[in-house]
Predict the structure.
Amino acid sequence: MAGAMHDDVEEILFTPEQIQARVAELGQQIAADYAGREPHLVTIVKGSIPFIADLMRAMDITLSLDLIGVASYGAGTTSSGEVRLTKDLDDSIEGRHVLVVEDIIDTGLTLAYVLRNLRQRAPASVRVVTFLDKPSGRGTAIEADYVGFTIPDAFVIGYGLDWNQRYRNLPYVGILKRDVYAGPL
Ligand code: PRP
């Protein structure tokens, strides 16, 4: 049904134009900070796919890319706290300047797990860029080095972010209507 996906959106938080402008800025800033060093971008799939695709093209320096997959046990709209690896990196990160690329930091549990895991592999350095930061959800003292947008305590979808694996292809970031995930009031 045409348009049905958009009908589930309560409000648009960031338009495609706002996203492109911010990601371009981020890419330039990160590229400048890594002058003389070659960053190795470790992307946490699947939510970060649109972000990494845009971010890396906004970084006009030599870089490399790898993917890592993690999942939290359990379902629903909140994390259970237990995280496991679902897809490991292809390449060694020993001695490399790793930049972890996330779509959103909510509780911080996913990122904490990934950072613990990566630091055991002796990288030269590790930094983090997240497209969205939701500080209200944080259960652990963890921050990104680079943040695209800080968002309020809402269930956001689009530009990679899903609910039940849907809405990742929305070109904007929006708030999901409550009755979609919680049923009618
Ligand atoms: C989402 C998102 C982050 C994580 C953030 O991943 O992509 O990785 O949750 O939440 P946290 O800070 O509370 O841990 P999800 O497990 O939904 O997988 P996905 O990337 O495949 O959507």
